[in-house]
């Protein structure tokens, strides 16, 4: 499938589609690989209804920004903010084409991307843009299905990235760490 447009995602969110919940096992891995935020900035690309960005912000102590190209997703995320406790910043942006200068921070200690990378058509350009916004020593955290984890006959095999995608994703980083969660693989990639 070609890159899914903002209109495609917006329609899914508006029609009530929701995605795999962030589990305790996943947040344990996140904490292990990203470490405490100490109020450093984090950017969650394709933040959806905001669960991961909220976790980064409220539990790990990052100053999180969630960006998404679907207005309904961002509205759902913002609706869960508690008035008493400032939450993540929510920003409407298509990361593949938006002006990175419009991001609040020039660089982020952590960039996260959960169940999004598979849908990026131009992966080289996407990763260039990620490297542009990562602070020196910063970590890119990618959570994705792997196609190889499903049978060829499984119609959901298309949800996973291919072996070639994996090779490309993991090339050119000084540190590459991985962790597995059933159908998902988590990548912690460090500049
Ligand atoms: C499968 S959902 C995952 C949402 C969330 N990360 C989660 O784990 O629940 C993919 C999300 O990425 C967003 N998205 C896809 N491509 C994007 C892009 N180029 N820029 C910003 N958001 C994007 C979609 O709008 C959607 O909310």
TrEMBL record:
Residues 43-140 form the Methyltransferase type domain. Keywords: Methyltransferase, Transferase. InterPro entries: Methyltransf_12 (IPR013217), SAM-dependent_MTases_sf (IPR029063). It holds the Pfam family Methyltransf_12. It comes from the Bacteria. SUPFAM superfamilies: S-adenosyl-L-methionine-dependent methyltransferases. Its EC number is 2.1.1.222, 2.1.1.64. GO terms for biological process: methylation. CDD domains: AdoMet_MTases. GO terms for molecular function: 2-polyprenyl-6-hydroxyphenol methylase activity; 3-demethylubiquinol 3-O-methyltransferase activity. This is Class I SAM-dependent methyltransferase. The lineage of its organism: Bacteria, Bacillati, Actinomycetota, Actinomycetes, Kitasatosporales.
